[in-house]
């Protein structure tokens, strides 16, 4: 799927440039072959060794650990950048008066329950 998406993007970006699609025997071709064959082969070989010795559980645990770390790192960056100290709302006389007004005009009735006076069904207090 990634190959298809990359191909569509490459065609869109290089639509009017036919020389971008020509293959030359130079360092660009060598770099692409090296990255595709050698690096991918090395990665598959290392993963195969790990799965043979430890099983796929180790790789799964590493992926889960890295994913969790990245999520927590992103959340910490998100919380740090949300508001600076200058943008935070400080309590002022007007804010406090508004909160007091809301409390006084509330029609809610609060009840407390004394749990120590409730008797159990077996007769013991």
TrEMBL record:
What keywords appear on the UniProt entry?
Answer: Membrane, Transmembrane, Transmembrane helix
One cellular-component annotation, GO: membrane
Annotated membrane-spanning segments are 29-50, 56-74
Protein name in the entry: Wat1-related protein
The record lists the organism as Quercus suber (Cork oak)
What InterPro entries does UniProt report for this protein, alphabetically?
A: WAT1-related (IPR030184)
GO molecular function term, any single one: transmembrane transporter activity
Coiled-coil annotation reads none
Q: Record's superkingdom?
A: Eukaryota
């Amino acid at each position: 799927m990634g190959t298809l998406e990359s191909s569509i993007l490459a065609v869109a970006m290089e639509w009017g440039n036919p020389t971008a699609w020509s293959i030359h025997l130079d360092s660009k071709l060598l770099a692409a072959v090296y990255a595709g064959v050698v690096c991918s082969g090395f990665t598959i070989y290392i993963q195969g060794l790990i799965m043979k010795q430890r099983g796929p559980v180790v790789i799964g645990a590493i992926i889960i650990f890295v994913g969790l770390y990245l999520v927590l790192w992103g959340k910490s960056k998100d919380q740090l950048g949300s508001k600076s100290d200058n943008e935070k709302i400080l309590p002022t006389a007007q804010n406090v008066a508004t909160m007091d007004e809301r409390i006084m005009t509330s029609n809610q009735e609060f009840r407390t329950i004394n749990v120590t006076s409730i008797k159990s069904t077996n007769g013991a207090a």
